[in-house]
Amino acid sequence: YEATWETVANLWAAISQVRGHERYAHGRITANATHVFRLRYNSDITADMRFIYDGRAFNIKSIHNVEEKKRMLDVLVEEGVAT
What we know:
The protein is mainly beta. Helix content is 0%, strand content 58%. It has a five-stranded antiparallel beta sheet with strand order 1-2-5-4-3, with no helix packed on it.
């Protein structure tokens, strides 16, 4: 079984880096970065999706409805990690 990805939607979002780190594992250095995408509320976004931004893949870790108002989402993502 091989997983495939398809484009579901193109969205406007602001991206900010929360933290990043590098580690040495299995003879190579891997870099992971944690970011937050802020975008308009969209109930169709789920944690089994990912965002592509500027050719980079970001795996969704958690989704937060900002102030529980269904206006904005903060989506915590991780870059550089296989799904």
